[in-house]
Amino acid sequence: MPRQFASTRKLRPGDAIATEITAQFSITRGRSCGPSPWRPNRHPSSGRLHETAEAAFDTVTGVIRHGTRMQEILDAARVIEDAGFTVYR
């Protein structure tokens, strides 16, 4: 998810842009969120970011069931921080 308040720092090669696009028609809504490398061919962590996102999805969906406590989900999502990325809570 993008940060709630945008930074004023200018983009540099190697940065990633987090986006959120939301659309609604009548009562139907859709949302797409994701990072976009500023210079895809030169962004060193874009592949690692994608691999981490897949690992987080797998570990989190592996623990979610009726009655799962939030701490169990956060523990499963720890793979994100273990990979060197940050989780905004």
Q: Summed up, what is this model?
A:
The chain is an alpha+beta fold. It is built from three helices and two strands; from the N terminus they run E-E-H-H-H.
Radius of gyration: 16 Å
Residue share in helix: 25-40%
Compute the number of strand runs: 2
Look at the structure and give the mean pLDDT: 76
Topology order in helix (H) and strand (E) letters: EEHHH
Give the terminus-to-terminus CA distance.
Answer: 10 Å
Q: Tell me what portion of residues adopts beta-strand conformation.
A: 15-25%
Key phrases:
89 residues, alpha+beta, 2 domains, two-stranded antiparallel sheet, 34% helix, 22% strand, extended
Q: Could you characterize what this model shows?
A:
This protein has about 90 residues and is α+β, with helices and mostly antiparallel strands. It folds into two domains: about 1-45, no CATH class; about 45-89. It contains three helices and two strands. A two-stranded antiparallel ribbon has the order 1-2. Strand 1 (about 15-25) and strand 2 (about 30-35) form a beta hairpin. Helix 1 packs antiparallel against helix 2 (about 70-75). The chain is extended. The chain starts with 15 loop residues before the first strand and ends in a 7-residue tail after the last helix.
SSE inventory with pairings:
Layout: E1 16-25, E2 28-37, H1 46-63, H2 70-76, H3 78-82
Antiparallel strand pairs: 1-2
